[in-house]
Design goal:
The protein is built from four helices and 28 strands. With about 375 residues, the chain is mainly β. It folds into two domains: about 40-90; about 90-380, Pectate Lyase C-like (3 Solenoid), CATH 2.160.20.
Length: about 375
């Protein structure tokens, strides 16, 4: 009598030999895993899924998820499909492409119909008057030479607006004005993300206006390389609320006015500033952080080359300097104070400074102990986190 072992039932648990046979049958290796109990559709970018269907490579009845537009498609055949779920969004999106966009055909929540200019996208936002309170503007790689892009915006006072920049976004204004002017409070500005570059012929501030200050929230500004080539007051001006600003590198060309600052905080605002590298041109006197109007500021992890860390305009503002360094060339000889003040102040605290640090001017008294008393004062007087 013979037994056909080829069709023998699999034991529980299967023997090592049976495990190998099962893996071989499914085309699996010893390290591969199989997961049951839920289905995750294949995902891809909009372009990848379009290519899949245009090349007749889709599997009939399979579901594909577009992670950019947040759509689900079901394949009818290898080249045709039907939409089975609309885009999912917790707010409203406007897409802007300075190279290939079209202001005449730009549409809300449609990445395939981007606007060409930021100004037109904000103008359509005013027309659409969406009910969502979260508004996001996505900028594709391009040079954006625009100012006052929010001019005429009247319906956004309670809207939370965020600017998201992909790699390759450049702001390079050739006109006077402010690129994102929120000085009259036209919206709740959440910040600028993605570290856009700011250079070429740049003669305009990036942002002026209030920052967020509700439910432990603050505005976030991520800035890449900055080339300042003309005279204007500051790159980012925070007039109230709380903001966290990081800048990779700033280079002030010769001729930039001495009063220029990367960040200016006023109106009792609270800011955290980190500028990895700052370099002044032929005229010294530029400042990483300027405080005015009983504002609070922390400047940290900043390397200044012929640049002043901070300037206090009034005696009520409070400054904390953490882990910063400054270098000034020995030739030609120059004196660049690391901290300056227009009035006498004792509200300056430092910790972990290094490098060839120059002095502070006669109005500044520095507390460098940063002991328990100062830490306590920081917790009370600087209600910012980060």
């Amino acid at each position: 009598m013979s037994i056909d072992l080829g069709n023998a039932p699999v034991g529980t648990p299967p023997t090592p030999t049976e495990q190998t046979q099962l893996r071989t049958s499914f085309g699996l290796g010893a390290a591969d895993t199989v997961e049951f109990g839920g289905f995750v559709p294949p995902t891809g970018t909009t372009a990848e899924i379009d290519t899949l269907f245009s090349g007749s490579l889709a599997v009939p009845d399979a579901i594909y998820f577009d992670r950019e537009e947040k759509k689900q498609w079901q394949a009818i055949t290898s080249s045709t499909r039907q939409l089975i779920s609309a885009p999912v969004s917790d707010g409203t999106c406007y897409y802007i492409d300075g190279r290939d966009g079209n202001d005449s055909t730009g549409a809300i929540n449609n990445q395939s119909l981007p606007f060409k200019t930021i100004t037109a996208a904000f103008g359509q936002f005013e027309v659409d008057a969406p009910t969502a309170n979260t508004i996001t503007f996505y900028l594709a790689p391009s040079l954006y030479d625009e100012v006052n892009v929010m001019a005429g915006l009247t319906i956004a006072a309670v809207k939370n607006v965020t600017i998201v920049c992909t790699a390759g976004v450049i702001f390079g204004s050739t006109s006077a004005g402010t690129i994102f002017d929120n000085s009259t409070g036209v919206c709740q500005f959440s910040g600028i993300l993605g570290s856009p570059a700011i250079f070429t012929t740049n003669i305009s501030p990036l942002y002026v206006g209030a920052a967020l200050d509700a439910d432990e929230d603050m505005s976030v500004f991520e800035v890449g390389s900055v080339k300042v080539s003309a005279a204007y007051d500051n790159l980012i001006g925070i007039t109230s609320g709380r903001a966290k600003i990081s800048v990779r590198a700033v280079n002030c060309a010769a001729g930039t006015q001495t009063g220029y600052s990367i960040v200016s905080a006023s109106g009792g605002s609270s800011v955290i500033v980190s500028a990895n590298s700052t370099t002044s041109g032929g005229v010294y006197g530029q400042t990483a952080l300027r405080l005015n109007g009983a504002s609070h500021g922390i400047i940290s992890d900043t390397t200044a080359n012929r640049f002043t860390w901070a300037k206090l305009v009034d005696a009520s503002s409070i400054l904390v300097v953490k882990s910063c360094s400054q270098s000034v060339p020995t030739f030609p000889p120059a004196t660049v104070n690391c901290i300056t003040a227009d009035v006498a102040t004792t509200n300056v605290f430092t910790q972990g400074t290094s490098g060839a640090v120059q002095g502070v001017d006669a109005n500044v008294t520095v507390d460098s102990t940063f002991g328990s008393l100062v830490v306590g004062a920081l917790a009370i007087n600087l209600p910012i986190r980060g």
